[in-house]
Amino acid sequence: MQHLIEMSGIKKSFAGVVALQNANLHIAPGEVHAIIGQNGAGKSTLIKILTGVYRRDAGEVTINGTPSTVSTPREAQDAGIATIYQELSLVPLRSVTENVMMGYEPRTRFGTIDWKAAHKRTREILERFGIDIDVKAQLGSYSTAIQQLVAIARAVSLNAQLVIMDEATSSLDDQEIEILFSVVRELKKEGVAVLYISHFLDELYQICDRVTIMRDGQTVGQRVISETTKLGLISEMLGRDPEEIEAAGMTGLGGGEKAEPGSSLFEAENISTARGLKDVSLTLRKGEIVGLGGLLGSGRTETARALFGLDGLKSGKIDAHGSSGQIGTPAEAIAAGVGFLTEDRKREGIVPHMSVRENMTLALLPKLKTMGMVDRKRETELVERFIKSLGIKTSGMEQPIRELSGGNQQKVLLARWLALEPEVLILDEPTRGVDVGAKFEIQSIIREYVDKGLGVLLISSEFEELVEGADRIVVLRDGFSITELENPGVTEEALIAAIAHHHEEAAA
Amino acid sequence: MTMDNNTVQNAPKSSGPKFDWSVVSRHGGVFALIAILLFNVLITPNFLHPQTLFVNISQVATIAIVAVGMTLVIATGGIDLSVGAIMALSGALAPLIFTSPFAEANPELGLALSIIVPIIVALACGVFNGALVSLLNVQPIVATLIFFISGRGIALVLTNGNLQTFTNPAFSYLGTGKILGFPFQGYLVVIIAICVWWVMSYTVFGRQLLAVGGNERAAELSGVPVKRVKIGAYVICAGLSGLAGLIVVAINSASDAARIGNLMELDAIAAAVVGGTLLQGGKAPIFGAILGAVIIQLVKYTLLANGVADEVALIAKAGIIVLAVYVQQARKE
Questions:
Q1: Residue B257 contacts residue B88 (beta carbons within 8 Å)
Q2: Which residues of A touch B214 (CB under 8 A)?
Q3: Most CB atoms closer than 10 Å: which of A367, A411, B11, B190?
Q4: Which residue of chain B comes nearest to A46, CA vs CA?
């Protein structure tokens, strides 16, 4: 069978640094194909070469058997390749119709846009995927999932033969993911190929046919997914022995010695905020990880925001030891020994123009201050130490942080907080969008600090991470803390049951 | 997402030696300056005469001083339209003070007050701008528009719209004094630029200012006092504008509130942009801003010296801004 896309022997380097060497990718028409690999393995670069964002230094690309001349994203679109990015490239303040039709609006005789026809066509396009929404409403008024589906619908309406989905599910909840998957299956039925990039291996088994594995800029394998195991994929991705990985366990958070919980670090009693917290109580003690369990929208991030002084309390109180007064701003929270690693690395974490060094010490500046100046010597020593101890892969501490891979950016941000020597660290999805290897490392670092007495409040959508990592899990639902599970003894099933049980109760 | 910001490299098959445009775009300002200088040496009569140098230094000083302040404000992701009006305000105040009966009686104190008071007033204007922007979340362009309109109005009211002429050699030293043959304000520019550069490179405030401009959310979540830092940028910018207003008055030995600092906001923004400041914030190339100011001054001078009308010079200035922004965009790819 002729391949839809054939990329072979692709080479690419940036300013002398090799990003790709001998990378291959073969996609058959109508198949769902996955690319996996650690951050920095070259997935994004390979795709950007395919979509005309970068030019290859060497190698062949053919589309439908003819050599590709694609050199701009627009030409890729014309050749039938559509890309749905992590960050949507749509216009949230314009209507659904305008977004779907952008650049291809139907015209009236007078050359103006024929809105009636445009709305009608948009509705038809969306109906194919079972989406029934008001196409005249602003796109931004819909959930991320719907917006993503609109982007896909737009791509397909432009006669895409290949839809590339880059981390499409990372901001969706389970139900939304299910809708997305049904759309993927629908695309497949219509003969449209899907190139799927995800850090969630479980997802691949649900929808993908084949998988291409990349490591260090090379294609190291192409497998039919039903013939592989998760462990096999991971070991190939990391280039390690499967048994070794199995012995270590799948997450690095667990395995800490179950020490006697230390003295209490803070207690939140019946807190509520304007942002949707109704009644949450929890305590955190020295040297333990407390997980926040619950579904999207149950109030996990909101709890973190309240504890960090971002949202004012409507009622209840937070008793943080180490702070004399009420925490009302992030600066006060930091002064009280609380750190907050946010979920949205790009929007709330990194300062892209700044170097690794400057990003790492941003929160520490007040402590590095001598007569208004930054103590460069201490700063450099500290950054050097953390780059080493956290294994941050960078060409040097002066490298702009934006050039680092996601996992390494996350380590820098983690170091930003660890450098403060906080008593309490709130981690909101600390390993989201991070590859398997870096994930394990980050989890191990956290565990190491917890063993030394750090108290961690862990928010994670991955039940595995919560169950293996947390000493206790506070289960949230609709802004209420409803129950608490204590390790050892918590299983994923038990956690799911706790969340689900209370949902049934709510329904009853 | 790892490779996003790398430059797109040339196609592999391009043959032969190629002119590397990236060098030009990275040092565009320097190349532009060299080009203008060469042009002038060849075409403009008497360009190499020392007098030409002094005229240009004394004229570029005000643009450069304001441009340094503007660079800080732009680095926070804001903009300050009120610089020209603040110049007018401080420029109108100074003669009022040193021509007052009190100052005539106490010349030294009067002179000191005529410099200190206008600058304090300018700083207060900066506090107002900064407070509107950071405490009330008013868009910077709107917040500073308030003084853009009213600042000059206040200056005109204070002086009844009259041209104030004076003879005060001590005060005029600010604009006409010379050290080792070079204009005093030239030294002032160098000192200010070095001080501000040092602040931006070595102090906590400088680091925090760039962080606020680079990612305000991240800075706030890291405990950076975002509001204070922003107010600081507007205050410094306003203070430097006040100083520039004094220099203009000192050069002319006359104060015309309607004309001091007229269109200065545009020159300062242009100088900052030509110097490589990103309008979205996060970068503060101080010496770049000085370079930008020099380029703008030289283009103005070149056209004037070659008999091109002032109006046409304005168009040329617009051309420079377009070019600078274009080069900036090209560099981002």
A1: yes
A2: 351-354
A3: A411
A4: B3
Cβ within 8 Å, pair A58-B5: no
If we measure between CA atoms, which residue out of A390, A356, A403, A365 comes closest to residue B219?
Answer: A365
CA of A339 vs chain B CAs: smallest distance (Å): 8
CB contact under 8 A, A365 and B10: no
Distance CA B85, CA B261 (A): 7
Distance of CA A58 to the CA centre of its chain: 31
For B49-332, CATH number? 1.10.3470
- ipTM summary value: 0.82
pLDDT band at A361 (very low <50, low <70, confident <90, very high): very high
pLDDT confidence of residue B10: 40
Q: Which residues contact A283 (CB under 8 A, 6 or more apart)?
A: A264, A266, A267, A268, A290
Nearest to B203 among A334, A349, A373 (CB): A373
Q: Which pLDDT tens digit goes with each residue over A16-28?
A: 677 888 899 999 9
Count Cβ–Cβ pairs < 8 Å, chain A vs chain B. 119
Sign, CA dihedral B176-B177-B180-B185, equals negative
**A386 burial level (CB within 10 Å; 0-12, 13-18, 19+):** buried
**Which chain B residues contact residue A351 at CB under 8 A?**
210-211, 214-215, 218-219, 282
List A7's β-bridge partners, or say none.
A25, A61
Distance of alpha carbon B104 from alpha carbon B111, whole angstroms: 9
Domains of chain A: 5-247 (3.40.50.300), 264-507 (3.40.50.300)
Which of the residues A362, A375, A425 would you substitute to probe the B interface, choosing the one with the greatest number of B C-beta atoms within 10 Å? A362
CA dihedral A170, A172, A176, A178 (to 10 degrees): 30
A340 touches chain B (CB under 8 A): yes
Q: For residue A197, what are the contacts with CB-CB under 8 A and spacing of at least 6?
A: A34, A35, A36, A43, A47, A164, A165, A166, A167
User: Structure pTM?
Assistant: 0.74
Asked if omega into A92 is within 30° of 0 (cis), the reply is no
| Helices (H) then strands (E): counts for chain B | 15, 4
Whether residues A374 and B202 touch (CB distance < 8 A) is answered with yes
Residues of A in contact with B11 (CB under 8 A): 55
Please state the φ and ψ torsions of residue A197, each to the nearest 5 degrees. Answer: -115, 125
Q: Find tokens 């001054």 and name the residue.
A: B297
Angle at CA of residue A140, ends A410 and B74, nearest 5° = 60
**Rounded to the nearest 5°, which phi and psi values hold at B12?**
-65, -30
